Each structure stands twice: as C-alpha cells, then as structure tokens.
Amino acid sequence: MPSVFSKIVAGEIPCYKIAEDAHYLAFLDVFPLRKGHSLVIPKKEVDYIFDLDRETYLGLMDFSRRVGDAIQKAVPCKRLSMQVIGLEVPHAHVHLIPINTMNDCDFKQQKLKFSKEEFEETARLIASKFVK
C-alpha cells in the first residue's frame, strides 16, 4: 500500500509545496514544531533512508541542503535542524526545522497550528528563496 508521501507525490493528497524536481519533493509539515518546518522526500518510495541507493541518498541530501538554504533565508532562525527519524511514515524523509534553541526540535512538544493561509504564505515565501 502506498505511503501518505507517495500519495502526495501522486497528487492524491494536497501539500504546501516548497520545491520539486524529477526525483525529490519538499513541502511543509502540517504538524510543525516551528514555522517553516519542512519535509524533504525522494519521490521513489523506500521505507528506510539507509536503504536508498547511493545516488538517491546523495541527491536527497543535496536537495535538502538547497531547501534548507531557502528556509533559512525565509524564516528567521539561528540554525536549521536536520532530523531523520523515519518511524512515523514508511517513506524515507528528512525533517528541516528552523531553530533558535535545542527545545525547538523536540518532537515531544505540542505541534503548532497554522491556518491554511499561513501555510500557503510560508510555502510561497520559502519557495521564492529556493535556488534550482
């Protein structure tokens, strides 16, 4: 059965898209820890990040770096946290989270809530800073 991320790639589920190419997709996390919290995925459905072939893994890291650069230009923060947890969705993915303190990337904390318009504006702002 396809993962929720594969359904997003297929257009069956909407997302707040930041960047996309033939192999990767970046979009806002709808259960964010911070404004700008994003997910970067390979379009190829592979459950575990270390099961990705070398080319896809390295491409994911490069694409994530470029998305991260855009996030840092769009959302004020001291650093950008990159986390790979991989238990909640069986599709390899990277979390990119703008942070000012270590607590900002603690997944035990309550998730933030934004309106559809706030998500759309944040996605547009980050997308405008993305360099292809």
In short:
With 132 residues, the protein is an alpha+beta fold. Helix content is 31%, strand content 19%. It has one domain (4-129): 2-Layer Sandwich (HIT family, subunit A), CATH 3.30.428.
Overview of the structural elements:
This protein is of the alpha+beta class and 132 residues long. The protein has a single domain, classed as HIT family, subunit A, CATH 3.30.428.10. It is 31% helix and 19% strand. The chain is built from 3 helices and 5 strands, in the order αβββαββα. The chain has helices spanning 4-9, 54-74, 116-129; strands at 17-20, 24-28, 38-42, 79-83, 94-99. It has a 5-stranded antiparallel β-sheet. The mean pLDDT is 95.
Annotate the secondary structure layout.
Elements: H1 4-9, E1 17-20, E2 24-28, E3 38-42, H2 54-74, E4 79-83, E5 94-99, H3 116-129
Antiparallel strand pairs: 1-2, 2-3, 3-5, 4-5
Helix pairs in contact: 2-3
Q: How helix-rich are the residues, as a percent range?
A: 25-40%
CATH class categorisation: Alpha Beta
What is the CATH homology-level superfamily? HIT-like
What is the distance, rounded to the nearest whole angstrom, between the alpha carbons of the first and last residues?
32 Å
Largest sheet: 5 strands, antiparallel
Q: List the secondary-structure elements in sequence, H or E.
A: HEEEHEEH
Integer average pLDDT = 95
